[in-house]
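Hi V.,

You were right to ask for the full record rather than a summary. Here it is.
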Amino acid sequence: MPTLFSAATDAETPQVLLLREVVSSGSVPSLPLGVDFSGTVDDEFLKNLGLEKGTRKVVNHEERGRVLQAMDGCSYKAAAGGSLSNSLVALARLGNRSVEAPAINVAMAGSVGSDLLGGFYREKLRRANVQFLSAPIKDGTTGTVIVLTTPDAQRTMLAYQGTSSTVNYDTSLASAVSKTNILVVEGYLFELSDTIKTITKACKEARSSGALVAITASDVSCIERHFDNF
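Predicted structure:
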């Protein structure tokens, strides 16, 4: 899901706005935004599910359900995940630590489904003082990553991309972009052809308003595939 990171000067306007996606469409799972399920399992658990230990793969809705059902009774936790989401939460916390400087207003725009996991994700960000600007995608499913760790510290990762992987340049996003001080675009968004239009509009509007614009490098393969757009 796309995320937009923006910084602003008043309590209602985001100072830092992040534009990002829920998942990438590459062969290696990458979920800048989504819900993470992390559990501790043994080798027999992986064998029963036909999973090769230490690998990463993209799974479909049915495969995700099968693994989560098998995890029932195991030790695991769910958390709002994504490297950039974590960065925004940290920034929001830093902005609230000083009694002298004004708080840093942080916001994100992106795609989450209208399912329970989407609500869980939005609520976690709200509690961390990060505004989530985008409405949930009707009947969409939120991206997830399942991380299965065995006693030898090997991690097996399963990424479910979900159905919500685009960001629309709607009125709420346009308003935030025009007022933000910093706009950060998640590089994996370039994997989504329809979202490139949103990136272009957001970057042009932010620059015309005097905002600082940054794009994450993501990974080398993503840059190579979309070098001209970068």
